[in-house]
Amino acid sequence: MELEQQLDEAERAVARAGAPTPRVGVILGSGLGAFGDQLSELIKLPYSAIPHMPTSSVVGHAGNLCLGSVASVPVACLQGRVHLYEGHGLDRVTFGARLLQRIGCRAVLITNAAGGIQAQLSPGDLMLITDHLNLTARNPLIGPNPEGFPRFPDMTTAYDAQLCEAGRRAAREVDAPLREGVYAALLGPSYETPAEIRMLRTLGADAVGMSTVVEVLVLRHRGVRVGAMSCITNLAAGLSDSLLDHAEVEEIARQTHTRFVSVLSRWVELTGELVSA
Ligand code: HPA
Fold first, then answer.
1. Which residue of 49, 154, 197, 213 has the smallest Cβ count within 10 Å?
2. Is 211 annotated as catalytic?
3. Which is catalytic among the residues 10, 11, 19, 61?
4. Does the structure show a pLDDT above 80 at 60?
5. Is 234 an active-site residue?
6. What pTM was computed for the model?
């Protein structure tokens, strides 16, 4: 079945849940799942109840679409995402992001865990993503182009200036320090070598991770405004004395969770004002 028909079916399944039309979408990264459970008037749809929605095999990634609101902004939240390194195709990995657009989201805020490359970054820092390097050698827009969307979408404004400004303001208002930088996405699942990290730094990357950019591409293609923020969970390979370990990445994400959730809640609220104006 074609992707757009799959999306039709998924959209109908979500509509049956009867939630108000969401205007802001949120994609939650490692260790941030609990944000979804804190929505008001929460309706939780397991991915298994949504046709064609893939489920993640990674520990720490629950699979639910959470519908509800934050400060009266109707929100749809992907609690758990699938990654390219799990072996899923691009259509699967980006299905949830495309679905967010289908069900009404005009802006999507994306979060992830990332390794810090820029010298100022420390574990536990939050970093606003201002641009990206797509080093996955994948592009989810390859293939037939659905009608009504551009064949060659612009990426000059991939990370929406007003949403970036709202992210900065949200962090300021809740007293959370916020860094900024360029996110480089690699396929994974192995972490990088120290030589690769030196290469990424030369290329202009401030942080490195294994998600987000393919979702950004499909959202921008569909005209959805995007903001993104990383939780820096570790220094990238070779920049500290320790080896990289997923359990540690999760632990730092968990420790940063409260601060990240405060920023995200306020960011959603400010985003809601922007997209309903
Ligand atoms: N590299 C890639 N992905 C990551 C890292 C890293 O150092 N930390 C968290 N996700």
1. 154
2. yes
3. 61
4. no
5. yes
6. 0.96
Q: Are 113 and 31 in contact (CB under 8 A)?
A: yes
Residue nearest to atom 6 of ligand 1 (CA): 115
Which residues touch 107 (CB under 8 Å, ≥6 apart)? 23, 24, 25, 160, 163, 224, 225, 226, 227, 271, 274, 275
Ligand 1 pocket by Cβ (under 6 Å): 113-115, 191-192, 208-210, 233-234, 236, 244, 249
In angstroms, rounded to a whole number, what is the distance separating the alpha carbons of residues 196 and 238?
10
Report the distance separating Cα 70 and Cα 272, nearest Å: 9
Block residue for tokens 């370990």: 245
Choose, from 64, 112, 134, 234, the residue flagged as catalytic: 234
In whole angstroms, how far apart are CA 263 and each of 125, 145, 183, 267? 12, 36, 19, 6
Q: Which CATH class is domain 3-276?
A: alpha beta
For this structure, is 236 an active site residue? no
Per-residue pLDDT of 80-128, as tens digits, reads 889 999 999 999 999 999 999 999 999 999 999 999 999 999 999 999 9
Q: Is 257 known to be catalytic? A: no
Atom of ligand 1 nearest to the CA of 237: 7
- Cα–Cα distance, 77 to 205 (Å, whole number): 28
